[in-house]
């Protein structure tokens, strides 16, 4: 499905959107199913993590929300993710994210009366459904998978003279976050050895770095990457942006807890020691994890109020009230930020992206643009982050690896990121990676993107 809005300045709504529609019972009217972008005059559909998809129905598909509710993203990019890389997707005739035949638009479960988003909450009311943690960030889970065979294969690949790099790639690049935990534990139980330490001894350079990112799993990779970004001279601010911004409260709490357990120090105190002035305050607001949950409805009155607050803090005064803008973008969910960006453009005929670009500078500007562009279209934003790690002279290998590995944990998200990359840059992500990498490092990165 084509996205007719591309070709415009990034982060702005496509031309053709009409006037800001009147609110209906506290929520914006949804676009017609399957239309992306919606017809002229309708509010654009969400592009971010508006709620988590409801639990899979039998057969692994999702039902659409009932009419009148703000729908989850229609996933215009990519194709259905394969069950395993290289395998044909199930029911290829179905559009990405669609329910099985006969269930499209099926009535929601009767319990509670709502499926997905909750009913409109009173203005200022707290969200009723916390966003669940991402896979690998929640409480330990027991899964029906035995890592013994793969643990033995990993040991065989690194034992004795030489290393079977292909076996390491094939095994580690195909595991989900829960399987990686089981595999790492099985390796230690069987051989009384640490998998990550063995990988470090047997491999080198960026190939080693990528394998370690995979073996740690998403949560511990985040924790160690944060620590490394704030160790030694200087701070890699872009790493803090990648890991901490636009995350759910549950994921942030998991990251903070794991950081404390691993390094016996609080993440907040380390961030305070590395950042300064208003940028420090911005990240402490983020780390407070008081973001509106993804299930919180978009409330027109709050959107209007936030738009006017941002205007008065930037274009409408001499100087800039940076903290007010930071507080709004840090504490609203993606759907709300997207509504704010759309309304700002309608009201003042200027994109919120251009306002931030003109009113802010340095790390704070980069962080605010990260939050905004992620909310406007998280898949296109991810594609841009991947391209930024390869563009220009030399490849920013540590960013390329950490970003590829981070997106690879969620096959559905990865399929959409690859589709967005293809649309924006007119080439496949895998072919771009092949042009920037070589050897075992190249093999690992291409395997992580599923090719």
Automatic annotation (TrEMBL):
It holds the Pfam family Annexin. The keyword Hydrolase does not apply. PROSITE patterns: ANNEXIN_1, ANNEXIN_2. Signal peptide: none annotated. A pair of annexin repeats may form one binding site for calcium and phospholipid. Belongs to the annexin family. GO terms for cellular component: cytoplasm; nucleus; plasma membrane; vesicle membrane. GO terms for molecular function: calcium ion binding; calcium-dependent phospholipid binding; phosphatidylserine binding. This is Annexin. Residues 1-138 are annotated as: Disordered. InterPro entries: Annexin (IPR001464), Annexin_repeat (IPR018502), Annexin_repeat_CS (IPR018252), Annexin_sf (IPR037104), ANX14 (IPR009117). Residues 20-57, 64-110, 117-133 have a biased composition (Pro residues). Residues 1-19 have a biased composition (Low complexity). Keywords: Annexin, Calcium, Calcium/phospholipid-binding, Repeat.
């Amino acid at each position: 499905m084509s996205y007719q809005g591309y070709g415009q300045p990034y982060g702005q709504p496509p031309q053709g959107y009409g006037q800001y529609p009147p609110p209906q019972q506290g929520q914006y009217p949804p676009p017609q199913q399957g239309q992306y972008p919606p017809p002229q005059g309708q509010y654009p559909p969400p592009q971010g993590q508006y709620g988590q998809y409801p639990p899979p129905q039998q057969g692994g598909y999702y039902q659409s929300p009932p009419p009148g509710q703000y729908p989850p993203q229609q996933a215009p990019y990519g194709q259905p993710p394969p069950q395993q890389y290289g395998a044909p997707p199930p029911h290829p005739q179905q559009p990405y994210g669609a329910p099985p035949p006969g269930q499209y638009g099926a009535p929601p479960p009767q319990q509670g009366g709502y499926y997905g988003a909750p009913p409109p909450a009173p203005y200022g009311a707290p969200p009723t459904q916390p966003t669940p943690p991402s896979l690998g960030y929640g409480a330990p889970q027991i899964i029906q998978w035995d890592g013994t065979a793969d643990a033995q294969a990993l040991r065989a690949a690194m034992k004795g003279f030489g290393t079977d790099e292909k076996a390491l790639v094939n095994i580690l690049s195909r595991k989900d976050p829960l399987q990686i935990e089981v595999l790492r534990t099985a390796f230690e139980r069987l051989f009384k050895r640490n998998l990550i330490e063995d990988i470090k001894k047997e491999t080198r350079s960026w190939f080693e770095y990528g394998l370690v990112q995979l073996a740690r799993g998403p949560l511990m990779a985040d924790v160690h990457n944060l620590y490394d970004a704030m160790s030694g001279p200087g701070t890699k601010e872009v790493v803090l942006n990648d890991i901490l911004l636009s995350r759910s409260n549950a994921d942030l709490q998991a990251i903070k807890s794991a950081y404390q357990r691993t390094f016996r120090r609080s993440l907040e105190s380390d961030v305070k020691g590395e950042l300064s002035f208003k940028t420090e305050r911005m990240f402490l607001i983020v780390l407070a994890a008081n973001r509106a949950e993804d299930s919180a409805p978009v409330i027109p009155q709050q959107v209007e109020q936030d738009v006017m607050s941002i205007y008065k803090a930037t274009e409408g005064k001499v100087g800039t009230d940076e903290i007010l803008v930071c507080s709004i973008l840090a504490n609203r969910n993606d759907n709300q930020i997207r509504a704010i960006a759309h309304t700002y453009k309608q009201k003042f005929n200027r994109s919120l992206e251009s306002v931030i670009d003109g009113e802010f500078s340095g790390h704070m500007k980069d962080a605010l643009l990260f939050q905004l562009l992620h909310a406007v279209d998280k898949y296109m934003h991810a594609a841009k982050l991947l391209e930024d790690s390869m563009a220009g002279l030399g490849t920013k290998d540590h960013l390329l690896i950490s970003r590829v590995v981070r997106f690879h944990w969620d096959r559905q998200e990865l399929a959409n990121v690859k589709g967005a990359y293809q649309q924006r840059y007119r080439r496949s992500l895998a072919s771009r990676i092949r042009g920037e990498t070589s050897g075992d490092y190249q093999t690992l990165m291409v395997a992580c993107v599923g090719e």
